[in-house]
Amino acid sequence: GSQAMDRSVDSVCPFCGVGCLVTWQVRGEKIVGVQGRDGPANEGRLCVKGRFGFDYIHHPDRLTAPLVRKPGVPKRMPEPGADWRDTFREASWDEALALAAGGLLQLRSAHGPKALAGFGSAKGSNEEAYLFQKLVRIGFGSNNVDHCTRLCHASSVAALLEGVGSGAVSNPVRDVEFSDLIFVIGSNPTSNHPVAATWMKNAAQRGAKIVLADPRITDLGAHAWRTLQFRADSDVALLNALLHAVIDEGLVNEAFVRERVEGFDELRAHLAAFSPEAMAPICGIAAPLLREVARAFASAKNAMILWGMGVSQHVHGTDNVRCLIALAAITGQIGRPGTGLHPLRGQNNVQGASDAGLIPMMLPNYQRVDDPGALAWFENFWGQPLDGEPGYTVVEILHKALAPDADPHKIRGMYIMGENPAMSDPDLNHARHALGSLSHLVVQDIFLTETAWLADVVLPASSWMEKTGTASNTDRMVQLGRPAVAPPGDARADLWILQQMAAGMGLDWHYPGDESGVAAVYEEMRLAMHGAIAGITWDRLLCEGSVTYPCLSLEDPGQPIVFRERFPTASGRVRLVPAGLVPGDEQPDADYPLVLITGRQLEHWHTGSMTRRSEVLDAIEPVATASMNAAEMARLGLVAGGRARIASRRGSVELMLRRDDGTPDGTVFLPFAYREAAANLLTNSALDPFGKIPEFKYCAVRVAKA
Ligand code: SF4
User: How far is the CA of 175 from the centre of ligand 1 (A)?
Assistant: First the structure.
């Protein structure tokens, strides 16, 4: 490289929502090492991904020039070892941008604004998320904009907005330090939020009781006071039984309910039918154990609830979270240190991307597009007319791509920045067919992902380590990422690409300053956020590096704990919503007798495009595996290390078996990071009606020796 000098760059880990601060050691144009920095979420700690997962940015597969699809090449997944040159040719930025924006413009004028849609990404910065949704809303002219929050915590956010008036966490993870009881449900934090898991384990060491409730007992189970290995799909039965027991045993926090809760009487009446004794056969947990846990939770000085995708990715995901809100509310376990509700966010910026408005029904800061006042405010702020009809969500958009030609809402063109729906969406055969049948697809990414293989134009983008930008972690901390190296070849900063696309679609944007005007974009977003981050100016971020919102003024240190006095609902109180038992969409039967649960593993991140190109992480976990317990394998005549074929009604994969006795009988667990055995070929695209999140955590499969 030109600059041979070694240097250190302070930034944020690119992976999970814990938001660990890091320092990268750089030699020339290469990152050669990373150290944990003393950040508020990590105090120097890092997991294996943060510590070793940085070298993907130097992988020879990086896109270094814009690509344009050769005429007549069919849009389908590449054969193993396929050469991209048979499908694409390199192009100049001028040509690629003209084709990318021109194709979208053409579809808009032929079919109207609703023919277009965009997926942004929670892997990008707040500034990119903000600008992307602005481009779709103004440049495309519709609200068809979404991102992977739809696959992650959309149901949690729906329930939280309804119940407590805010979709974010009430207390930071580090608050487990002040908890006497830590209720973890539907989450495997050791793999998915590893540094957060270390804080939980530290709390257990000083005497806090961990309750782990999950169909799959993972590493944290060894640190738990009680484990509730409930039957997959029976979450609401389990949680309603706990709520029933709290009321039945006289452990309701009467003063809290009187002053700060609404809907308690309706909830109590609804819960009459859900005694622990009645629910025990459904959820598979003995009634005395349910009662013991309910008592411990309600009578703890401080009890905190943390949950993950095991709760949210169900057709009853919103109902699951309604129950969790009720549990915190009727026991008064919210609004103080060591209490509250914490949906553990998956990606480094899924909180921020949602806050910035990268969702179809809401403008920045959760202002509803169908609220005329909110819409008028943004029309004035952006100086452009806006559409007041909520757009389609991720899975709906792909369904609409396959709608008949006569459908006025058929999606015909898409712009996808940093997402990989051809791996991450449910029912991949359907999703890939939908992406492949678009008339025009523009993909902006750092690798030729499975989705990019289906594109008409591919725009080579920047990795997290190659740009300035902010990300908001699971604790609501806005944290500053800084560039360590320049993007390779002709790859460009995403903010620059976004502004070129906007210009190509006829928008006259001007964000002055260095590096694509990131500071100017941030400052515009800060104003668009209706006060939530009013006190977090760009200058303050440069200086402090991490500030928690809500932060109302420059003097406000930030508010890690919210709901101390009131809830930001219309009445100022928590609104309780009773939940009934809604079974999973596809139940096991004679043909497909087992249940499939998908998820992640420690070393691999989401669709694997980054971590599988990281030498150390790939060396630790090089091949796709399916986990089953020893007894279940024996029943099916399978052996650990052998190969199995797993099939659902939608597809099948073949992969190696591994023994995991924490996986319950009748169940198989698959990580979704492996393109050669893509778990989402099997999953069901049935949606939760409120959050529109697909049911990744429950579908019927059969497993046989391959
Ligand atoms: Fe990165 Fe998350 Fe690991 Fe921290 S816990 S180092 S943010 S992947």
Answer: 18
